[in-house]
Design brief:
GGDEF domain-containing protein, disordered C terminus, alpha+beta, catalytic activity, 7-stranded antiparallel beta sheet, 27 strands, 8-stranded mixed β-barrel, Alpha-Beta Plaits, transmembrane, 4 domains
Length: 746
């Protein structure tokens, strides 16, 4: 029998040991799991809040109604497999906007994050995760520990001292059973002594570290558990060291990477380390529980990529651009460095979409993005703003003029033809450049000024770059005012046509007119076409206005024909209008409706229009001429048409550009060019008309060279319908003959 005092001590000892055996395993497990689950819920709430806030920033007014997109964002779930969660988005008033709900059993771990629009809270996102499963596991461990504790207590209390050794052996066996329990959980577990020497690794830890328990035992933790920071690639402080130094539970820092021994594979890991204490509070070691979150991190990165990158090209999107520019401006302000913003818009990209389809257009944008990235330095950034607009942020520039070097590289790179599905595509870009801090000290101002400079580059002929200057802002306001007025000009009947006569030099009769568009704006007065046609083309309104011109000119030609004055009316057509797939049908329908013979309509096209998509244009022109419509090549001699093009296209008339006619007497080259064009027309049986004839001397030389027709101020300025009809009434052969001695024929 035990001595009473020894028996009491033995009883107390047995009770304490049993209590520790019963309490420590489940409490340790539950505490570590709670820290893990809480961190997971917090991270997922933060990630989802970022994604939803990005959606709100892109669509601040209607985001509450994009439930499908919100539910899609909420569906990115990177937590532990099988964990039940409830995810809900509320607006600022607490109304549920979207939810991704599963049955979630108490107890719950909750996390809430605010949603922001430009820094202003507009709602919140709540995530609740069930903690029932870890509690069930903890209770399982507690049950096992309870059985072990009871057996230990009974064994220690009931056996005599001679069986104490056997009791300790039993305790060791029960400890092994507890270790088996640790080996069965899904998390990795490592225990050490107070000197950070490895004592135990469970199978999951062995798999992730590449060390077995036998290999790792007694080795220092830093040798077995090699971790570093994903972003800095610098070694991270081991959490066990921190927990032993501070005597507290320590969570791993964010972006921790574990390198496995042997193959060097890297794993994203998360969780924490805690000190192991005995009954008197003394620390005898530490335990670290961690798990592989590589798949979850990939999901987070994917979610981040969706929120901050363009889906088509993979380039940073507008949000990423603004954030990068903000950081670059902050660094530039502190370090006194220049930052340049290049705003790029592709020229004629819409033509590719309209003619070849959006699929080809998308592929072209991808190739453009690659070429743009190749033109900038590694630390510079190219982004896609949307459509065919791109930006570049150039940092640490030695001078403002350094941005021009990059702009020239970009222009050269994009001028090289693209080959796509058997198509040779030629595009260019117009670039506007602003420099921080010279041209602005805020993102909005820099971007607006770069956009203004880009439009100035377009107005200068495209395929060039322009630095922003303050005078551009005033010019941009004038252009904007004109564009706004143009949008309503057609509906308000502000357009009208004037007609300039054409004279046949052989018969000395008026044989045709050119219909010329005029705009009488109530605000701007009479605006000449050279000042507003480009704006119509940029806005796309040129097609609608062009249809009105065609319809009006055809109707007027029919009136003159019915009055016994049939004459050919010429109408200029823009490239965008000509490329409409049903345009030929539209022309023939207008002729049929008006009852005008096709031979009394002449379409004027430019050389550049003719050569842009030659195969399609040949079919269009042939379709017109086969039905009797005449086609004239306008401004001939200023482009790059070759003899083969003239033989290929069924052109009925060549119009010599006025720039040659002006210098016909003083410039020998101009004289020879005109003579060559006239001879060429006669050889190909194509009529030749000279425009811009203003003097009797020009008239006489053109008649001597055999030119077929003339048009210009010598004959008449463009006239309204009543004025033109009066001109016809007063016109006579004697007046034609007087052209050789008079300044004007009226």
């Amino acid at each position: 029998m035990f001595h009473p005092r020894k028996l009491k001590l033995l009883t107390v000892f047995a009770a304490v040991v049993a209590f520790l055996v019963f309490v420590l395993p489940p409490i340790t497990y539950i505490a570590l799991r709670y820290q893990h689950e809480k961190a997971v819920v917090s991270v997922e709430t933060h990630v989802n809040a970022l994604a939803v806030s990005e959606l709100i920033n892109n669509n601040p007014e209607l985001w509450r109604f994009e439930q499908l997109r919100l539910i899609e964002l909420l569906s990115f779930r990177s937590g532990s497999v099988g964990a039940a969660e409830s995810r809900t988005v509320f607006d600022i008033d607490g109304t549920i906007v979207a939810e991704s709900r599963r049955v979630v059993h108490a107890p719950l771990i909750r996390s809430t994050r605010l949603l922001f629009d430009a820094g202003r809270p507009v709602g919140r996102i709540d995530i609740a995760r069930s903690f029932r499963e870890p509690l069930v596991h903890g209770m399982g461990i507690a049950a096992i520990s309870l059985v072990v504790a009871i057996l230990l207590f009974l064994g220690t209390y009931g056996l005599p001292l001679r069986t104490l050794r056997k009791a300790f052996n039993d305790l060791r066996q029960e400890k092994e059973k507890a270790l088996i329990t640790l080996q069965s959980i899904g998390d990795a577990v490592i225990t050490t002594d107070v000197n950070m020497r490895i004592e135990y690794l469970n199978p999951v830890a062995e798999k992730l570290t590449g060390w077995t328990t036998l290999e790792a035992r007694s080795r220092h933790m830093d040798e077995v558990f090699k971790i570093f920071n994903e972003k800095t690639r610098e070694p991270s402080v081991n959490p066990i060291k921190e927990c032993l130094d501070t005597n507290t539970v320590v969570a791993m820092e964010n972006h921790t990477i574990l390198v496995r021994r042997g193959d060097g594979e890297e794993f994203h890991i998360e969780d924490s380390a805690a000190p192991i204490r005995v009954s008197d509070g003394a620390i005898i070691g530490a335990v670290m529980v961690f798990h592989d979150v590589t798949d979850r991190r990939k999901a987070q990165n994917r979610l981040h990529h969706i929120a901050f990158h363009d889906e088509l090209t993979g380039l940073p999107n507008r949000s990423f651009f603004q954030e990068s520019l903000r950081r670059a401006m902050q660094e530039g302000h502190v370090l006194n460095r220049r930052v340049a913003v290049l705003f790029m818009d592709l020229d004629k990209f819409k033509t590719v979409n309209d003619s070849l389809g959006h699929a080809i257009g998308d592929e072209l944008l991808v190739l453009v993005a690659k070429r743009l990235q190749a033109c900038v330095r590694d630390h510079d950034m190219v982004s896609r703003m949307g459509g065919d607009e791109f930006t570049a942020v150039l940092t640490d520039l030695p001078s403002a003029e350094s941005a021009a070097i990059v702009a020239k590289k970009i222009i050269k790179a994009l001028s090289t033809p693209f080959e796509l599905h058997g198509n040779t595509l030629r595009i260019s870009t117009s670039i506007g450049i602003t420099v921080f801090p010279r041209d602005g000290e805020s993102i909005g101002v820099l971007l607006k000024n770069a956009d203004t400079a880009m439009y100035h580059a377009k107005s200068c002929g495209r395929n060039n770059f322009q630095y922003y200057i303050s005078a551009m802002s005033a010019r941009a306001l004038d252009v904007l005012y004109m564009e706004n007025a143009l949008h309503t000009a057609l509906d308000n009947d502000e357009y009208y046509l004037e007609y300039q006569p054409k004279l046949d030099l052989k018969t000395r009769r008026i044989v045709g007119v050119e219909a010329l568009l005029r705009w009488d704006s109530p605000q701007l007065g009479c605006v000449m076409p050279s000042n507003f046609i480009s704006a119509l083309e940029e806005s796309g309104d040129i097609c609608q206005v062009g249809s009105w011109v065609l319809e009006t000119a055809i109707a007027q030609a029919k009136v003159w024909m019915d009055a016994g004055r049939p004459m050919v009316v010429s109408v200029n057509v823009s490239a965008r209008q000509f490329k409409q797939p049903d345009w030929v049908d539209e022309v023939m329908a207008l002729l049929d409706t008006a009852g005008l013979p096709p031979g009394l309509l002449q379409i004027e096209v430019t050389e550049s229009l003719l050569m842009d998509g030659a195969d399609r244009n040949e079919a269009m022109i042939r379709a017109l001429t086969q039905q009797g419509v005449r086609v004239a090549l306008d401004d001939f001699g200023t482009g790059f048409s070759s003899l083969s093009y003239l033989r290929r296209f069924p052109i009925t008339e060549l119009k010599i550009d006025r720039s040659f006619v002006v210098d016909i007497r003083k410039n020998t080259t101009a004289y020879k060019v005109i003579k060559t064009i006239i001879d060429l027309g006669q050889a190909l049986d194509i009529r030749v008309i000279a425009e811009g004839v203003e003097t009797p001397e020009q008239y006489g030389l053109l008649a001597e060279m055999g030119c077929d027709e003339i048009q210009g101020y010598l004959l008449s300025r463009p006239l309204s319908v009543p004025a033109f009809e009066a001109f016809l009434d007063n016109f006579g052969g004697g007046q034609v003959a007087a052209c050789q001695s008079q300044d004007k024929l009226q």
